[in-house]
Amino acid sequence: MYGVLVIGAPGSGKSTFVSGLSDMFTQELITVEEVMDRLDLGPNGALKYCIETLCENKDWLLQKIMDNKDTYIVIDCPGQVELYKSEGELWKVIRHLEKAGIRLCALHLSDSLYCNDPAKFISVALSTLATMVTMEMPQVNILSKADLFSDAGTFDLEFFQWLPDPSKLSDFLNDVPGLEQYKKLNTAICEVISSYDLLSFVPLNVQNKESMLHVIHLADRANGFSLTEQGDLRDLVFNI
Ligand SMILES: Nc1nc2c(ncn2[C@@H]2O[C@H](COP(=O)(O)OP(=O)(O)O)[C@@H](O)[C@H]2O)c(=O)[nH]1
Ligand SMILES: [Mg+2]
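Above: query sequence and guanosine-5'-diphosphate SMILES. Below: predicted holo structure tokens.
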């Protein structure tokens, strides 16, 4: 079975994207609202409690997924970045599903609004990179709400897609009065991004069918689903 995990900061457009793909919703095990009410917790504490409960019930989740064989799974994840840590509950749930043969990839959404500000974009790039490294699964990075992107800012959208030279962004930061003193730090941060050389982004506008299809196609390639439709991988190799 194949599927995608839709992740990214709150408000980045995860639920909108997921609802464009499917109209099914499962909140059978536990909900944040219920936990907030019953245990008198705030939204973040309740979310942590829910993820811990899900982790304790990962066999239940696996069974639910297996009951729907031949279904493509789309999981709308919470946006709190603290959930995406190595060996954390979500990480354990994903490893559990992978072990059972479910091939997942992550679609990481970031709001393209942040491209208009180099400091914000650097922080988006760092958190995207951190998720790639900690979650240890194929990841497609999306710049959501591309229809709202305006290139009146620093660079056009193409620059952010391939991120050829993040040090260009730190040049902008160094020009901001008061930030000169952080020049070395900014340069070092940008060097982290370029030395990993893992980041690229794909724009997404959920109102545009082609844009949605393009992102789905990339996810299918990342989790291997597209290979199943084209037959055995060895056929592909031998036919070249
Ligand atoms: N213009 C535009 N707005 C979008 C797009 N995707 C999501 N939004 C809006 O962004 C807001 C947050 O989206 P939501 O899906 O709730 O974000 P989530 O917190 O990541 O699940 C909502 O008001 C959506 O209507 C998009 O592609 N274009
Ligand atoms: Mg949401």
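The CA atoms of residues 124 and 165 lie 15 Å apart.
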